[in-house]
């Protein structure tokens, strides 16, 4: 059998051998459209400053999207046309340098490339012997190097830190059940812990009160004295503390729990140490912030995102587990079903499959966009961008210090500034609703998009700076616009 010529023949004939496939009937027409879409995507990113950060979707656009189930084929050109009119202008806005809400990554121009190429490959990275798995393993090894994890550590790419927190806690729970069967398990985190941790506990079958929330100090860090006390009381009551979640970068204020102290408590008491480092963990890449993250290398499991402070296109998160065997025990199925049998050679080989380390079987090629991003920029450059964001947060706090009737509500220790206007004559709920209004006015102006939160009960305009495109002039404009919006409110003046 001449395999070479068989392959050659099938290429020759592929155009007419299967005319009913879903491929384009006219590849050249497809190419023309694809090139122009690519140009448009590049321009979209390049000219982001020229557009509003965000705009609400007009009623007619929503109505136009409200289409019935397509049963018949439509021209790709017309689908793309709708994309340009109905979708492109109304995205969340996080690539814009004045998007300051929540914690969003800003994306990378090269993400257009890596995502397009990944779509062309359409690799299923749940398992089997192919480059997708080797690349994911390489990325995981790089992450172990970033966080100084041991060789025996394992890791998996996930949709984000919500999933990574869930998987990390699942491994912790299974490990605790194996060594302390039948005991009532409880976990700990600070009152500033992200809601995904509570959700994870819920999915894992725990009652709400099984996640104990420890109070924070004036810097919004877990009070480790209170933690120690609570652990003692729990034991005295016959329950088993099985996991402590430390946060590296809280979503409200960017606070870091004292990871060294929590790690020591966990080590001495045989408790699993999970770190939620969704965005803050990558501060390890920034020379000036590195001490903040100290102790993270002692975590039993670590959740963090590439799509936040590394700007890899959504979605891309990661879980590292110090003891890879415990990770495998939690997720590899045994016995392996016949249809997923591993082989010593051929496609069913390839060593460990990611599906042994998480709940998903089919999964996309997330490693490709991360590999592109890390190689293009090098982790040092991401670290520099993180430092710059934090410098800009301090710059903003400085600007706000000179604005009358403004108070900053958090210690600006990282990249987040929570502030509120406090004009004389207003307090309580009226003050809250004034600031809520100004935040919404800012968003609707298209000039800047902060979000809001509550800091010690007070409503705050929250400015999160995780965008590599943000510069000082953007913060000047934010403050100028907020002041103008306040002036337009014609509040009752005290004078
Ligand atoms: C964003 C965030 C999460 C959730 O991560 P996703 O990637 O959005 O799922 C969890 N914890 C913290 C501290 C976060 O900032």
Protein topology:
Elements: H1 3-17, H2 27-46, H3 59-65, H4 76-87, E1 99-100, H5 109-121, H6 131-147, E2 154-158, H7 161-179, E3 185-190, H8 195-203, E4 211-214, H9 224-236, E5 240-247, H10 259-269, E6 272-276, E7 301-305, E8 317-321, H11 324-331, H12 366-401, E9 406-408, E10 416-421, H13 428-445, E11 449-455, E12 458-464, H14 472-488
Parallel strand pairs: 1-11, 3-4, 3-5, 5-6, 6-7
Antiparallel strand pairs: 2-8, 7-8, 9-10, 10-12, 11-12
Helix pairs in contact: 5-12, 6-12, 7-8, 7-11, 12-14, 13-14
The structure holds pyridoxal-5'-phosphate.
Write up this protein:
- The protein is of the alpha/beta class and 495 residues long.
- The protein has a domain at 124-364: Type I PLP-dependent aspartate aminotransferase-like (Major domain) (Aspartate Aminotransferase, domain 2, 3-Layer(aba) Sandwich), CATH 3.40.640.10.
- The chain is 43% helix and 13% strand.
- It has helices spanning 3-17, 27-46, 59-65, 76-87, 109-121, 131-147, 161-179, 195-203, 224-236, 259-269, 324-331, 366-401, 428-445, 472-488, and strands at 99-100, 154-158, 185-190, 211-214, 240-247, 272-276, 301-305, 317-321, 406-408, 416-421, 449-455, 458-464.
- Helix 5 (109-121) runs antiparallel to helix 12, helix 12 packs across helix 14 and helix 13 (428-445) crosses helix 14 (472-488).
- Pyridoxal-5'-phosphate is lined by residues 103, 160-162, 194, 196, 247, 249-251, 276, 278-279, 305, 317.
